[in-house]
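Journal club side-thread
Mid-discussion, someone asked how the predicted structure for our own chain would compare to the paper's figures. Pasting it here so we can look after the session.
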Amino acid sequence: MSTERIKLRKWQRIFVNRSLNMGSIRALGFDMDHTLAHYNREAFEALAFRETVRKFVLSGYPRELEKLTFKPHFLIRGLLVDRERGNLLKVDGHKYVKIAFHGRRKLDKEERHKLYNSESFKAQEFVSVDTFFALSEVQLFVEIVDYMEANPGKIKKSYREVYDDLRKFIDLSHQDGSIKNEVIRNLDRYMSPDKQLAKTLLMQIEAGKSLFLLTNSNYEYTNAVMGHALDGVSADFPSWRDFFDVVIVGAGKPGFFMGSQPFYQVIPESNLLKPHDGPLAKGAIYHGGNVRLFQKLMGYRGDEILYVGDHIYGDIIRSKGIVNWRTMLVVEELDHELELLEKSRPELERIKTRFEDREALEERLQILRSKIANNYRHAEKATEHGDLRKAKHLRRENDKLTRKALSMERELETNDLELRSLMDHRERKIHPVWGELMRVGFERSRFADQVEDYACIYTSRLSNLRFYSPFKRYHATTDALPHDS
């Protein structure tokens, strides 16, 4: 298939932050969830929401929480959770909070400024909503905060304590199998396989690349999910395991990139682990391990490996920052958002025109204000020197200029209201609450800054690799500075 960019829809393209020569990549590693394996997100997140609510009630929280409902379209990734105040924030790349909610109540500009923008805050003090799995838990936190506001005293805990319980119950839901066992029993309900996945992986294999799977999930779950995605799809690779030289489950990312945990070999028939020493055998399943030992045993150095994942922190930041793996981030939301952005391009042009009009009007107003101030000074001096006729003339002129300035100020106010309305309307088309994933208004979001800093390339889905040669040189566009334009 031709890789000419003009023949690709925007959501099919791979976007480049850092030049990358795929010819020098010897191994491609893949995360599983939301990278190789696609979920029916609404069904899965609703399941996680329900199971976590059940654990809240079983632990002694009010039974009324059972009435809380999962709202799949309220949240997006890239937000921050202020556990102390029970707030949810969208922040731009300069750490300025542009949108904030307390429960489901939107904070106004004055509240945001008082809490966050009057002085700089440390984003690391907040919880980052980096993964799709975090959406259901944060959605539940929002709903409980809202419940606490409407029912004072019924939950005698702080917001932070509630969030700590939330994390504990989510982890318990994964450990006791109440979520993953349900997924395994109903794979067709919760999973949505990418029909182009096998073709994409085969292209890399045929080009001589070594493929490996690196996931935090255990073997039983991985085997079920990957089997649903790849078993029987290719005659040459009848089992999903045939696509990968090495499979590592239970990796404990980001600990895999920072720790020294040894490898264990998984015995698939019994799902038991045995200590492993020596090379990693092709086709075997391993548990745990660490990145330094992995590179030593596989014989690849950092920049010969491209790792593909959806978790900006666990997959991308750590693999890039610690061992210099090349990175590809899957930003699944772009699949839908890029089409909406294309459709809203005429609105964007109108907004840009309004901004230019506003800037020109504001500049004329500043010149007018300067002239009024200058006339006032000269009128004062004329009065001091007894030239009352000149002073009177200047004050009369200033009366006319002041009326004109007031008219321009009203025009500016009207322009600002229309501009805000245009921007709000466009942002609501992208997402009714938070707008674009990569922007807050016209500013880049904190999430966008992280993508640029750590992802060499990014795209809406892994299978977009099939549109490009396995030896392609991805070239970054020139980094433009404000003075370049």
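Post-session note: Residues 1-5 have pLDDT under 50 and may be disordered.
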